[in-house]
Amino acid sequence: MEPRYKRILLKLSGESLAAGQGTGIDPQRVNEYATQIKEIVDMGVQVAIVIGGGNIFRGLAGAAKGVDRVKGDQMGMLATVINSLALSSALDAVGQPSQVLTAIAMVPIGEQYSKWRAIEAMEQGKVVIMSCGTGNPFFTTDTGSTLRGIEVEADVMLKGTRVDGIYTADPEKDPTATRFDKITYDEIYSRNLKVMDMTATIMAKENNLPIHVFNMDVVGNLRKVLSGEPIGTVVTVE
């Protein structure tokens, strides 16, 4: 079966790596992610990944406690590098080659990111893990993942979360919330839904990058998305 998408940008949250512990990295969760990612590479999918750093440090939260915002965001960038190295190690363990690229010069931890290096690595069958967000403060990893998805010419950004799509309200707080199968960017604006930050959402819309939101924490869901099964929510321009 032909996969639904040929090249994807997979956005993972740092909190998900903690597997409910709040902070840190849960080895079982990282290994589950690595196994699922290898499955779709074996299907012929080219995979680029951006991981958040909220399980280790979040710059905005640090700023609220008196940390300089620029330094706080730089600390958050370093947190994404730690998560990227953890996932890269787990991928190596399951026999899937990977390449860590950093938006800030950080040899020998990873090569400095460029669009062409990322695409070259994917075409060689490697999973590319792009860390440090955009490399600039005041931008979230949502914006970083949207930017990288556009740059590497991904067919879609798959946003792996702990809920199974986009709802009319927060399903963890409102039991009457219902899930959308499809929704447009304009509907997200008009309903004020918190899918991604506004910068990331506008950038995705203007560059016609669809987003597929799904629950990554359910083992097998990533393969189901690539197989075309109707799970999660797809966000499109129209």
Can you give a write-up of this model?
The relative contact order is 0.17. The chain has nine helices and nine strands. It has a single domain, classed as Acetylglutamate kinase-like (Carbamate kinase, 3-Layer(aba) Sandwich), CATH 3.40.1160.10. It is globular and about 50 Å long. The chain has 238 residues and is of the alpha/beta class. It has a nine-stranded mixed β-sheet, sandwiched between helices.
Throw out a few tags for this protein.
238 residues; alpha/beta; Carbamate kinase; nine-stranded mixed beta sheet; 9 helices; 9 strands
Quick rundown:
39% of the residues lie in helices and 18% in strands. It is an alpha/beta fold. The longest helix has 25 residues, at 69-93.
List the helices and strands and how they pair.
Elements: E1 7-12, H1 14-17, H2 27-42, E2 46-51, H3 59-64, H4 69-93, E3 98-102, E4 111-112, H5 115-123, E5 127-131, H6 141-151, E6 156-161, E7 182-184, H7 185-191, H8 198-206, E8 211-215, H9 221-226, E9 233-236
Parallel strand pairs: 1-2, 1-6, 2-5, 3-4, 3-5, 6-8, 7-9
Antiparallel strand pairs: 8-9
Helix pairs in contact: 2-4, 6-8
| Helix percent band | 25-40%
- Top CATH class: Alpha Beta
Number of helices: 9
The outline comes out as: globular
- Major beta sheet, strand line-up: 4-3-5-2-1-6-8-9-7
Mean of residue pLDDT? 93
SSE order: EHHEHHEEHEHEEHHEHE
Tell how many strands the DSSP assignment holds.
9
> Under the CATH scheme, which architecture would be assigned?
3-Layer(aba) Sandwich
Structural class: alpha/beta
Instruction: Classify the beta-strand content into a percent band.
Output: 15-25%
In CATH, the topology is named Carbamate kinase
Unreliably modeled segments: none
Q: Report Rg.
A: 17 Å
CATH H-level name... which superfamily?
A: Acetylglutamate kinase-like
Termini separation (Å)?
27 Å
